[in-house]
Design goal:
single chain; alpha+beta; 6-stranded antiparallel beta sheet; two-stranded antiparallel sheet
């Protein structure tokens, strides 16, 4: 089968070439992204340049998949070669010109490779990158009865598998501790359920033996049977208590997950770009050429180019900039930006309004803006503290969970 062997060899060589081309495309795409970022950092801040940057940021993710698509083609081509080889009768002969089999590449890496080394972005960035490790699961016994309702719910898998700002690391540590405690509680519940099942089987066996020896006897009145039934009742109570512990831990973990999810980058974010915003400043040209509440916000925290337009446009602008991973919601959080629509009773009916959330507590939401340098309670400024005319923006490099 020399011809077939040659064709298979060519298919695998083509797959290797596609895979290498995908890697080169990734490198070039990252170089283009870096060039645009460097141009902006150098102060190219004319209206036309900012318009270009905003449009580029909104469409740049299209290029990010090109290399992965090529590698996926390579994987399919190599799989086809394997299927043809298998259909032809198994492995090729010793005269096969291939010296080794290329290992499959990871099609979609967790983090972009450009500018990242050992999980930390190179240069001036020092943000830590988190990777979630899968939690081990205890094997359930086939003989064990069903758990009490809702006791076997697994904790939600967190979405924050890439970047998390420094101020939220402690919250993440609480989440990890909660996962550990929940796994331990599940394990203890498993042990109790297994022990209860064992005692139930022992009691059934004892019943059968006694009934076969003394058919007319009141088996339940025999002291040994009574003692075993009392032990099973105590085990049942312990199972219920442990199930309650599991449900409480699951609820705590779910709340921590919700808090972390709000301040982690949204899907589609450029994690290196997001990390670069932590501790940074808004571009000087933007800080010098904005007014009123927008001017206050861009000087209060790092705001990416393309976002600072009239206040009421900020929610729509964020939706067009997925690479920054900014989430939106109705929950006030420290370090979030409150966007008031033009229809809000406190906002300007032409431009809307922006406020910075300084803190959130039992006494309310405290904010600052261009009219209030010191924190003031939102409820003291307006009775409209919730509703469709208010949206909070959660910046992953600034907002605290």
């Amino acid at each position: 089968m020399p011809v077939l062997e040659a064709r298979l060899y060519q298919m695998r060589q083509a797959a290797a070439a596609l895979r290498a081309a995908g890697d080169r495309v990734d490198t070039q795409v990252q170089a283009v992204h870096q060039l645009v970022d460097e141009l902006l950092a150098a102060g190219i801040e004319s209206p036309a340049a900012l318009e270009f940057a905003g449009r580029y940021r909104g469409q740049k993710t299209i290029m990010d998949d090109w290399g992965a698509v090529l590698r996926q083609f390579a994987q399919h081509l190599e799989a086809a070669a394997d299927e043809v080889e298998q259909a032809a009768g198994g492995a090729l002969t010793a005269t096969d010109p291939r010296s080794s089999t290329l290992p499959p590449d990871v099609l979609f890496p967790l983090l972009a490779t450009a500018g990242v080394s050992g999980g930390v972005v190179s240069g001036s960035l020092t943000a830590r990158y988190w990777r979630r490790k899968p939690a081990p699961r205890a094997a359930a016994s086939d003989a064990a009865p069903s758990r009490p309702a809702a006791a076997r719910i697994d904790p939600a898998a967190p979405a924050y598998t890439g970047y998390l700002a420094q101020q939220n690391h402690a919250l993440y540590d609480d989440f990890v501790r909660g996962q550990t405690a929940l796994r331990a509680a599940h394990s203890q519940l498993d042990e109790l359920l297994a022990l209860r099942q064992q005692r139930l089987e022992e009691l059934a066996a004892l019943h059968n033996r006694l009934a076969s020896v003394q058919p007319a006897a009141d088996v339940d009145s025999i002291p040994r049977v009574s003692a075993m039934k009392a032990e099973i009742t105590a085990l049942e109570q312990e199972v219920q208590r442990q199930a309650g512990t599991v449900r409480g831990l699951e609820l705590d973990l779910s709340r921590l997950h919700e808090r972390l999810e709000r301040v982690s980058p949204a899907p589609g974010a450029d994690l290196a770009l997001v990390a670069g915003m932590e501790g940074a400043q808004t571009l000087q040209g933007i800080r010098e050429n904005t007014y009123d509440c927008v001017h206050y916000i861009v000087n209060r925290m790092a705001i990416p180019p393309g976002l600072p337009t009239d206040a009421h446009h900020w929610v729509a602008n964020v939706a067009r900039m997925p690479e920054y991973g900014i989430r939106t919601g109705a929950q006030p959080l420290e370090g979030a930006v409150l966007v008031m629509a033009r229809e809000h009773s406190y906002a300007d009916d032409v431009y809307g309004h922006l406020m910075y959330v300084e803190r959130v507590g039992a006494d309310g939401v405290w904010v600052t803006d261009n009219h209030h340098a010191a924190p003031v309670r939102l409820a003291d400024l307006t009775a409209e503290t919730t509703g469709p005319h208010l949206t909070y923006l959660y910046f992953p490099w600034q907002t605290r969970g």
